[in-house]
Amino acid sequence: MSTNDTAPLYAALLTPHRALEARAIRWVIALAACLASIPGIVFYAMGAWPVVGFLGLDVLALYWAMSASLKDADAYEEVTLWPDALDVRHVTKRGKETRRAFNPFFVRLSIERDAEDRVTALRLVTRGHHTEIGRFLTPDDKAIFAESFGAALSRAKG
User: Fold this and answer.
1) What pLDDT, on a 0 to 100 scale, did the predictor assign at position 69?
2) Cys staple from 121: which of 13, 112, 131, 140, with CB 3.0 to 4.6 Å?
3) pLDDT number for residue 21
4) CA 33, CA 112: separation in Å to the nearest integer?
């Protein structure tokens, strides 16, 4: 944190994109189970009853994947730029917290792009070390953050 009591020059809370809420996931799973039961009934009537179990496993795998995605939404990063410090706080989905502090005068924002010019990674580089930020953001969100944070970092350097 900054040693003075001034307002930060820049502050951002980075959170993963969450497509569905818990209630919507239940609806998707119910719909998938209903749709899987149609061929399940047909295969069961034909005597191929083991297929029903595999269709159930598909629905179970879908539920597991969507639940894991929902839990990932608990992770976040706070990026705060003060006149004399840059603080990055990363909190995992399990609540484990990691803090990094940088001197903004010695930090450079490195932006990696793919062949289609989409932002694939954002890194804070200082004295040969780098810290990736916004790993869970979409390429568009990374580009928006990079533009606003990069401008703020340039202003902080004077």
Assistant:
1) 78
2) 112
3) 82
4) 41
Tell me the residue length of the chain. Answer: 158
Task: Determine which helix (DSSP H) or strand (DSSP E) holds 109, and give its type and residue range.
Answer: strand 108-113
Q: Measured between alpha carbons, how far is 58 from 43 in angstroms, rounded to an integer? A: 15
Most confident of 11-25, 69-83, 100-114: 100-114
Between CA 139 and CA 115 the distance in angstroms is 13
Single-letter amino acid, residue 157: K
Write the pLDDT tens digit of every residue in 52-102. 999 999 999 999 988 887 777 788 999 999 988 999 999 988 889 999 999
Which DSSP state fits 128?
T
Give the CA dihedral 22, 26, 31, 32, nearest 10 degrees: 90
Whole-angstrom distance, CA of residue 97 vs CA of residue 111: 24
Average of per-residue pLDDT values in the chain: 89
Beta bridge partners of 81: 10, 86
Q: Which amino acid is at 124?
A: L
User: CA-to-CA distance for 59 and 14, rounded, in angstroms?
Assistant: 31
